[in-house]
Amino acid sequence: MTQSTDQQAAMKIASGRKAFVEPLRLGDRVKEIRLANQWTLEDVSQRTGLARSTLSKIENDQISPTFTAVQKLINGLGIDLPQLLSPPRQQSRTMGRRDLTRRGDGQMHPTPTYEHELLSCELAQKRMIPFKTIVRARSFEDFSEWVRHDGEEFLMVLDGEVLLYSEFYEPLPLATGDSIYFDSDMGHALVSVSDEDATILSVCTRNE
After folding, report:
1. What's the predicted TM-score (pTM) here?
2. 2 φ/ψ sector (left φ>0, alpha ψ -120 to 50, else beta)
3. Tell me, what DSSP letter sits at residue 140?
4. Are 185 and 151 contacting, i.e. CB atoms less than 8 angstroms apart?
5. What are phi and psi of 147, to 5 degrees?
6. Which one, of 117, 137, 111, lies nearest residue 129 by Cα?
7. How confident is the model at residue 24 (pLDDT cuts 50, 70, 90)?
8. Can you count the helices (H) and strands (E) in the chain?
9. Per residue in 105-160, pLDDT tens?
10. Could you give the CA distance from residue 122 to residue 172 in angstroms, rounded to a whole number?
11. Residue 113, CA distances (Å) to 147, 150, 161, 198 in order
């Protein structure tokens, strides 16, 4: 049987051995894959057939894995050789950013159906967009079209009750304290059904 391209490449790398040590940080990569899948050493041992002690030594760069061990890692972890040899991700360092918005100090963006107050407006390049909204709409007919935008959205009702319309589901009633997470490119619309206009908190993600 002809060896696969990955196996041939693994054989060439394993024959040199040094390529597995410091430059590729294979031990760190194995540990990264294990932790990303929330596996214990015992889990990986059962998947690969390698002893826990051997896996521990590989992760701590105390030994260089043999070609056979590399094959067992690839097959047991369900990955290919390039994935195993990819350098571990660099730990991102926090920049310590923060942005305080006092009550009523957000940027107001009123529309015929919603009164949005954008929060944390001074922080640039943020991955989430938080805003508080007073829902003025009282009927689905108040909307000329579905509301939709890229990303995902988390919504919590702070006060009052709303009816969440979405294009793939039946209207969903939400009361104070209820929350929902949904794909925001799905058409959606909120309508107040309480005596007073409802207030909600929304957090939208930004597509990279």
Report:
1. 0.56
2. beta
3. G
4. yes
5. -85, 130
6. 117
7. low
8. 6, 9
9. 998 988 899 999 999 888 777 788 899 999 999 999 999 999 988 889 999 999 99
10. 34
11. 11, 20, 15, 12
